[in-house]
Amino acid sequence: MATCGAVSRKKPPPFVLGLRCLRCGRQYAPGELDYVCGCRPNQGSDLGTLEVVYDYAAIGRVFDPQTLAQDRDPTIGRYWPLLPLAARASLPPLGVGGTPLPAAPRLGATLGLAHLYLKDDGRNPSGSLKDRASAIAVARAQEGGWPIVATASTGNAAAALAGQSASAGQVNVIFVPRSAPPAKIAQLLVYGSRVLAVDGSYDQAFDLCAAACAEFGWYNRNTGYNPYMTEGKKTVAFEIAEQLGRLQGGAAAVPDVVFVAVGDGCIIGGVHKGFADLLALGWIERMPRLIGVQSTASAALANAWRSGLDVPEPVKATTRADSISVDAPRDAVKALAAVRETGGAFVTVDDAAILAAILPLARLGAVFAEPAGAAAWAGVQAATQAGLIQPEETVVVINTGSGLKDVQAAMAAAGEPTVIAPALEAVRAAVGHWGPN
Ligand SMILES: *Cc1c(COP(=O)(O)O)cnc(C)c1O
Ligand SMILES: [Zn+2]
């Protein structure tokens, strides 16, 4: 069995021209390197982050809105010319994406928003948006002949890698902070991953995973470090554009604003790349403003944006929203570009507002989110107060993770049920305490 994927790597993805370093501008041929540019290989937030460059003219010759509309596959495979894969069939059978975009008029009305939509990515197979990236990681590992894939994760990236690996029969190793919510750790164990629960922070798990990959020749899925994860996450933007387009009777449409919770910054960078791809193909005519939401207790990127820095100062993250608890964001270059280049913003919300946002999102929007997912809605509230969005604008809020991922947080927000004796009298007493609907 090969210990180094580079030797056994087969044909390259047909539409990828190469990789470009967003820090020093150096270009690389497809497959020339796997992770970050040598200008800054191992420097926390100041990585030589690579961008995957596509041949849009060639894609446009085989891929158009009519072809796409006829594709019955609701998963990310439908976008395969825009994915960094040699073959569509390399995606694991456990389909990812195709999540709903319901309108949420009652939730919108609470803030005077007339056109609010919720992109519910908690409904991916492992319960988070991370499935989009992990599908690409496993597909690339299999195309490249890597025997083992590894990742560090606050929990969801790991659960996603575990599920996609189970689907494809891929051996995988997971580094999670020991403090990750039990539901996420259970997913890893159930799917059969080799789980290393690191007695330390996510940032420590990240560095340890990178060191272990170098030592043992594993394929590293780490967010920000592996340039291809953006390419999976961007598919959420393709779906939003297609779904809004369908509602408006066209092939694709752009919201005015998209809200997403931010930790390392890979998702918001992916959303940016997805809309940028569609703009380059001429399917859409403008970009949406991207608004990143961080907890005040994990705000490295929001701080950098506010002070105009390109490299965030690390923080000591303590937020209850574990999926966005990050000291030194690893995808800072792409995250800051996403906000700056679209005229967006970063907003911060405290943990009390994040937990409180779980309830309106579920009760008025029917989306049950984990704390990090609910943070995006808390961010809409903050942005409305700050005058960053207007009542008539089309606003999309991405829920990045299912509420079942962290039931303790949900119960903290929702409280306890009324316990009663098994008697009608007890029901009568309880009903007497209820207000009018
Ligand atoms: C990973 C994750 C985020 C943050 O994504 P980044 O790419 O780290 O910014 C937000 N919400 C959930 C549920 C996540 O799993
Ligand atoms: Zn570089």
Structure description:
The structure is a single chain. This protein has 17 helices and twelve strands. Residues 1-8 have low confidence and may be disordered. Strand 6 (171-177), helix 7 and strand 7 form a beta-alpha-beta unit. 40% of the residues lie in helices and 14% in strands. The chain has a domain at 105-125 and 230-414: Rossmann fold, CATH 3.40.50.1100. The chain starts with a helix and ends with a helix. The protein is globular. Helix 10 (235-247) packs across helix 11, helix 11 packs across helix 13 and helix 14 crosses helix 16. With 437 residues, the protein is α/β, with parallel strands linked by helices. Strands 4-12-9-10-11 form a five-stranded parallel β-sheet, with helices on both faces. The site of zinc ion (ZN) has 7 residues, from loops. Zinc ion binds next to loops.
